[in-house]
């Protein structure tokens, strides 16, 4: 696949990448200005000239991804036999500048149960850059016409109909955030069990009252989970000082609490700040 298709795939699966572009060439070089290469955590697509130039760019791109660097960088290379290199010599004789543009991984959020609250939560979250999964065992909850207002946002929305939502929870990437709010308390419990068995999710929120959570805690303890493990599930969801039982109120509260947990890239934070400023 080409670098553009690869970038779309990385973004859709929540993986980071760095786009390397030859921005300036002086003298002779393996590739012309405008040549591009996309670097992922384990693969790369396209080429900017091979040799030490390309290998060094790949090394730096992966350092940027590992460090969560969000600002673009310009790097200059001398293609001279006298240049200090790490991956062999290139003797083209020219100089090359390469622009490195990071695309950090987007958060992944899954809403299990797209009833009244799940729908409103999906609407709020879909206005933010993320991979958003809407999972339900009822096909009618995921009809395109019903979700039209959710899928029109900037998030990449994935409606998922499955008779076993807890199995799908096991397929989420590590660090994903899960909201459990199905129409069936038995289904909710299976989802909680699946979430605790994984142990690598970013957060898990369960909708419900204190009475519901008390029953769930007892049942989870009976399954052998320690108190510390059970404590990874938040119930009730949302900010404690935002009260109200209306679906929209619960959704806004839950979304606000999630935003406090997310480590959004600086570029996204800046964009959101500018949008907020424009409405002041």
TrEMBL record:
XdhC- CoxI domain span: 11-70
Chain segments annotated as coiled-coil in the UniProt record: none
Residue ranges of domain XdhC Rossmann in the record: 109-258
InterPro entries the record matches: MoCofactor_Util/Proc, Xanthine_DH_XdhC, XdhC_CoxI, XdhC_Rossmann_dom
PANTHER family referenced in this protein's UniProt entry, alphabetically: ALDEHYDE OXIDOREDUCTASE MOLYBDENUM COFACTOR ASSEMBLY PROTEIN, XANTHINE DEHYDROGENASE SUBUNIT A-RELATED
Protein's recorded name: Xanthine dehydrogenase accessory protein XdhC
Lineage, uppermost ranks: Bacteria, Bacillati, Actinomycetota, Actinomycetes, Micrococcales
